[in-house]
Design a protein that fits this description.
It is built from ten helices and ten strands. It starts with a strand and ends with a helix. The strands form two sheets. The chain has an eight-stranded parallel beta barrel with strand order 3-4-5-6-7-8-9-10, surrounded by seven helices.
């Protein structure tokens, strides 16, 4: 985590910008655009120039109705891109819930694993991440059925998995929590989670907010917009998340969100000058 260093001021948290690099043919937002290695690398470099601190490479779509792919196919999509990104001026994250893919990516230079199942799908994930001294993002997910309020379930589940990660040897400073907007939640539950983001921040773990171009943003804008027309709405959630204390945002439009985050970080810094 990097910090603003301004003489005479308390160092302020700099919101980390994670740029999305989908190397899938069927992603809901940009499927097929960057499935070729050369195009993927070009886009990654552009996102870094626009302000991305992290590039998140994903080889399996999570859109509704997506097709499952084999471990071999996921590796075929992801690993050549990760390998080609060596030396880029950003951390490389891989969006996978499979420890085999994670290990192959970490061997090629990735430093973060973004696990949409928080280690529940593959418990070996924690051991692999710890072995390579990498960071891990634990996202709240499920089947959408629950007997307790959504925020209670989210906090219990993520803290349980974070504790397992710590016991496996991953330092708390290398563990991120993601509330999982767009996954296994009703629209009402997503609004509840957003309104109570500060409770997730209060756990002491770093928090990643990933709303970019999702249905949540579509509804904020009035439910009559295309996927690529949701960047301003996404930026609004970025601003809201920063005010709630999140440490990073996962976005498609890096330039817009990087500029907004820089301004929001600066504005929050004024609070410490009073």
């Amino acid at each position: 985590m990097s910090y603003l260093k301004q003489k005479g001021r308390i160092p302020m948290q700099q919101t980390q910008i994670m740029g999305i690099l989908n190397v899938t043919p069927d992603s809901f937002s940009d499927g097929g655009q960057f499935s070729e290695v050369d195009k993927a690398i070009e886009h990654a470099k552009q996102m870094v120039q626009e302000g991305a601190h992290i590039i998140d490479v994903g080889g399996v779509s999570t859109r509704p109705g997506h097709e499952n792919v084999s471990i071999e196919e996921e590796m075929k999509r992801v690993i050549p891109v990760v390998s080609a990104l060596k030396g880029i001026d950003a951390d490389i994250s891989v969006d996978t819930f499979r420890s085999e893919v994670a290990e192959a990516a970490l061997k090629e230079g990735a430093t973060i694993i973004n696990d949409q199942w928080a280690g529940i799908y593959d418990e070996r994930m924690f051991k692999v991440v710890a072995q390579y001294q990498a960071s891990i993002i634990l996202m709240h997910n499920g089947d959408g059925t629950r007997d307790v309020p959504v925020v209670d379930e989210m906090l219990v589940t993520l803290l349980k998995q974070a504790n397992k990660a710590v016991l496996a040897g991953i330092p708390k400073s290398k563990i991120w929590l993601d509330p999982g907007i767009g996954f296994a939640k009703t629209r009402e539950e997503e609004r509840e989670v957003m309104a109570r983001l500060d409770e997730l921040v209060a756990t002491g773990y770093k928090v990643l907010l990933a709303t970019s171009r999702k249905r949540f943003v579509k509804l904020l804008l009035g439910d009559d917009n295309k996927v690529d027309e949701r960047d301003e709405g996404t930026a609004a959630t970025t601003a809201y998340g920063i005010m709630k204390g999140v440490h990073g945002v996962r976005v498609h439009n890096v330039l817009m969100n990087a500029r907004l985050a820089k301004a929001m970080d600066g504005l929050k810094g004024y609070e410490h000058d009073r």
